[in-house]
Design goal:
By secondary structure, this protein is mainly β. The chain contains 2 helices and 15 strands. The strands form 2 sheets. Strands 10-11-12-15-14-13 form a 6-stranded antiparallel β-barrel. Strand 4 and strand 5 form a beta hairpin. The protein is globular, with a radius of gyration of 16 Å. About 3% of the residues have low confidence. One of its GO terms (molecular function) is toxin activity.
Length: 247
């Protein structure tokens, strides 16, 4: 299957602290819907279209779940209406995924039917293995997650927020203070020592964009938009070969 990979960065680019946006700005993002009883599917995670059959997301989203409990909505600005909704046939988890540490928190969800690509449904440009994002670079996160750190319900309309990449050693030191390990497979983002802008619950699995290239997959954090603890993403460039082989 054809995939879009970007080898190196181009020249210097339910969400908290962001604003509403529309799917035409992010045609590669999808809402992942979950249901315990195989009906009344509700938005629970985000994902990125890889090609006409595969979605990139965080492994912890569908981990240990049946494919029948998940659906994907593509081509819509809204979590629960419009666009196209498809079922899944299989989930592919990275073999090194650790559910406790969330290292290698990356998975591919294969749809049971072809994803109908269009102007509003497009594969994302995935970071190549040599795509290294420098510190304090502008990145954009998007999703339908909750809009406040203590919120319970996600946003119905897609939202986005501008944040920044965080120095790896600083992020590692911050999380070491609470006994969490930041590995080289992770990419930290936020507004360090300020907070107020971040991904949050419901945004897991969704893309982090640098100059329209997907460099991160939303993974975890402490609270949301915390001034001391940045959000943590999967560093996509560490998994380019695996994505290419399994999409």
């Amino acid at each position: 299957m054809n995939l879009l990979f970007t080898a190196v960065p181009s020249a210097p680019q339910r969400i908290i602290g962001g604003s509403a946006t529309t799917i035409d700005n992010y045609p590669s993002i999808v809402a992942l819907l979950y249901s315990v009883s195989n009906n009344n599917f509700r938005q629970s995670c985000g994902g990125t279209i890889l090609n006409n059959r595969s979605i990139l997301t965080a492994a912890h989203c569908p981990f240990r779940d049946s494919v029948f409990r998940w659906r994907v909505r593509a081509g819509s600005s809204f979590a629960h209406r419009e666009g196209h909704t498809l079922a899944f046939s299989t989930f592919i988890f990275h073999p090194n995924f650790n559910a406790n540490t969330l290292d290698a928190d990356i998975a591919i969800m294969r749809t049971s039917t072809i994803i109908p690509l269009s102007n509003l449904i497009q594969p994302g440009s995935i970071a190549g293995s040599n795509y290294n994002v420098a510190d304090t670079q502008v990145v954009w996160a998007a999703g339908w997650g909750v809009t406040s750190p203590n919120g319970w319900s996600g946003a119905e309309q897609l939202r986005h927020v501008q944040i920044y990449t965080i120095n790896q050693n600083i992020c590692r030191q911050r999380y070491a203070a609470v006994s969490r390990t930041i590995t080289d497979n992770m990419l930290c983002s936020g507004v360090l020592d300020v907070g107020g802008r971040d991904q949050c619950a419901g945004d897991s699995g969704g893309p982090l964009y640098h100059n329209n290239v997907v460099v991160g997959v939303c993974s975890f954090g402490i609270s949301c938009a915390h001034h001391l603890y940045p959000g943590v993403n999967v560093r996509v460039s560490r998994f380019t070969s695996w994505v290419q082989a399994n999409a």
